[in-house]
Amino acid sequence: MFTWFFTLLRRRHGKMLAVAQRQMRVSLAKTVAYLSVIFTAHILAMYVFEGINLPDALWLTLTTVTTVGYGDLAAASLPGRAATVILLYMGGIFVLAKVAGDYFDYRTDIRLRKIRGEWDWKMRGHILIINTPGHDGEQYFSRLIRQFRESEQYRNHCIQILTTGFPDGLPDRLTRLADVVHYHGRSDDPESLEAVNADQADVIVVLAKDEYDRGSDSKTFDIMHRLSEKGVQGTVLAECVDDRNRQRIIKAGADIVTRPMRAYPEMIVRGFVAPGSEQIIENMFTSASDEYVRFDLEISNMSWKEVVCCMINNDLGTAVAYVDADDSLHCNPPANDLVNASALILMVRENNKPDQAKVARALQGGDT
């Protein structure tokens, strides 16, 4: 009930702001028209009563209404002075000052709306991030955005965050990253999705509302459904807490589905830069499908390509790294590097895990 109430208030506030914006434009247009009439009348008065030519009359009108007053020209006759007092002093300068004050108030209101996340930025080709992590969202966004900035493909993309997590404005840590803004709204609110131009985004990241709650997947599914209704064309990555919901979220429109990994926001960017790599990284943390296994055994004076080919030819797995005698890890070394190792790390299939004896025999050239 309270959620509905605050959503209603927000929509009403948004409509009031839109009305105020239209009223400001109408007011400015009317004021410009009014001042144009006043200035024209004063120019004609100076031409008729003072005998000043039209260019000089325009000059006198402008220097008077802006209170500059160079003194090179001035009204001398009683009708001319009366016209100046009535038209410019009473009818021009006061109105001009009021309009200037209203304009500055309007600009201040826009600035505050941008800070509070109430501004429609009319973005295109941007990165849209929906939702905020439940814990330390500022730190997470900082790392995630920096990863986007470090990738050549997304270095110059503007980033917008749809969240209710920063009602008083984005933290300085995020605003200092440049081209990062937010919209204060709910991810299940169609008007909020419209305000962040989801259908115009190049990249959309849908974060799980709670990375430990399987119920978050239903909210993610709802967001995906709403994005699909809007006909989004950008690449969509969605987090899925329960692996059993992956296919449902994919069918709902997600191009990439991954588990929430709050300690590794880099994995999300990898999913966009090199699709599929996020699955490989995810598998590193689980025993499903593929598994990384360490075999403590001695390897002497073999090239890395010989080690790799030996493992593949014997269907033992894929060699990805080795540990030398100083316990230093060498991941994906050059093919011709000589390997003197105390351990070998293989990526093996779940249903085909070799034992250490098989790996040792294969390296010695024996039958596995």
Notes on the structure:
With 368 residues, the chain is α/β, with parallel strands linked by helices. It folds into 3 domains: 2-116, Helix Hairpins; 127-284, Rossmann fold (3-Layer(aba) Sandwich); 290-363, Alpha-Beta Plaits (2-Layer Sandwich), CATH 3.30.70. It is built from 12 helices and 11 strands. It has helices at residues 2-49, 54-65, 78-116, 137-150, 172-175, 190-195, 216-229, 246-251, 266-273, 277-284, 304-313, 356-363, and strands at residues 127-130, 159-163, 180-184, 203-206, 235-239, 256-258, 290-295, 299-303, 318-324, 329-331, 338-349. It has a 6-stranded parallel beta sheet with strand order 3-2-1-4-5-6, with helices on both faces. α7 (216-229) links the parallel β4 (203-206) and β5. The two termini are 67 Å apart. The model is unreliable at 1-9 (pLDDT under 50).
Q: What are the main properties of this structure?
A:
Alpha-Beta Plaits, 16% strand, 368 residues, Rossmann fold, single chain, 48% helix, five-stranded antiparallel sheet, six-stranded parallel sheet, 3 domains, Helix Hairpins, alpha/beta
